Amino acid sequence: MTRVPDLPLAVSLGDPAGIGPEVIAKCWDNRSAFDLPPFVAIGDGHSLAAVWDGPITVIDDPGEADAAFDLGLPLLQVSAATPDLAGHPSIAGAHCSLDSLELAVGLARSGSVAAVVTGPVAKEQLYAIGFTHPGHTEFLAELATRDEKTPLPVMLLWSPTLAVVPVTIHVPLREAIAQLTSELIVTTSRILVADLIRRFGIARPRLAIAGLNPHAGENGSLGHEDQAIVAPAVATLRAEGIDARGPLPADTMFHAAARQTYDCAVCMYHDQALIPIKTLAFDDGVNVTLGLPFIRTSPDHGTAFDIAGTGRANPSSLIAALRLAARMAASQG
Fold first, then answer.
1. Distance from chain centroid for Cα 171
2. Are residues 197 and 259 in the same domain?
């Protein structure tokens, strides 16, 4: 049974022309069957009504969500200048998705909601309105602490089958290799371990640290980065009392027996981490941003404009994101 935090979760609809409104509506429709905690949707109600004929209860404060939850989907209205059609993204919709996200983060920072769950957004439309970040993860890191030092954004992809963290995130592969340092691996792993203890209840997290090169460099015959960068980082982590192993050949880290030996795989670049988890847990993977002063999860899929409005969107990843956000919030008290 899902542990229920004291406060509701805030769920931003994401791009109003994507599948976010549909999967959120499906979650509310099946809230008892899916064992979901109370949540409040944030976004344009027109996008919900366009794909769903269920009851919507517009509220003015997240504190009203619990009482409204069984009567209708609680909604904090953020209106778009012009309503989007499902499958047809617009500049107005991009503005609406960002406004909804900022409101959700503000509520989390003020202690009005237990966690933020973000719906999928479309980067092409966001870039058209001046968005400068590679993705949600980096934007949330800046948004979280605008008056303080921006934290290092750490992206965890979690599922019951596998959990992974890429050390470098939304950058081209050539740039990822240039960015990779022992310090970055160590800092990322420290943030990961702290949140695994605090928010996942894992007393002594076990980390498997992937090598950068094939076969973790074959003792230098396939590149020196594993000896010069990854191995010293693992040594530092172990000296701090963190249970870390590596550098390990990435091609043998993700089979069933290997996965039983660690709690999270720390990978050197985006695809090294995301290919295995999207292969093993495509429908129930959850994107979590670690190191923030609030909890943020997200379904691990995009806007899927091609099926928006057709009724075919699968809510499984959002269900997992809601459950995980509730679990993390309840774990930290």
1. 17
2. yes
